[in-house]
Amino acid sequence: MEDYLLPKHRPPEIPEKQTDIKFWMLRAVFVVGVILTGVWYVYEANKTDTHLIACTADAKRCPDGSYVGREAPDCAFAECPTHKNVSNRINCEQEGGRWGKFGLAQSEYCDFPPWDQ
After folding, report:
1. Residue 76 CB coordination number (10 Å)
2. 39 neighbors 54 (Cβ within 8 angstroms)
3. Tens of pLDDT along 50-95?
4. Which of 13, 37, 85, 110 could anchor a disulfide with 92, C-beta 3.0 to 4.6 Å?
5. CA-to-CA distance for 79 and 81, rounded, in angstroms?
């Protein structure tokens, strides 16, 4: 009985074809987004920095008992140092060397020619 008192309200009908077009458009935008994200990811993952070179961590023993490692860019062993194990500045200078300090700990060493310029 009360049915006739209330106006019958129905949402406007959307044609089925229009709904299908929106659905496929959203699906296409999503697929294109996924593809573009994948392309970007592959591009970023394959970027290489040609300035970074990793060498193996092996060492070579020098005649004075010290060790040197490999150096970039060709990963060849560094040259052995020219310093000798001299106990003090006086002995160093008497043998024709140059006394010096290096590093944060200010380690002392005796360097012999040829000196790096």
Report:
1. 11
2. no
3. 567 788 888 888 876 778 888 888 889 988 876 555 667 777 777 7
4. 110
5. 6
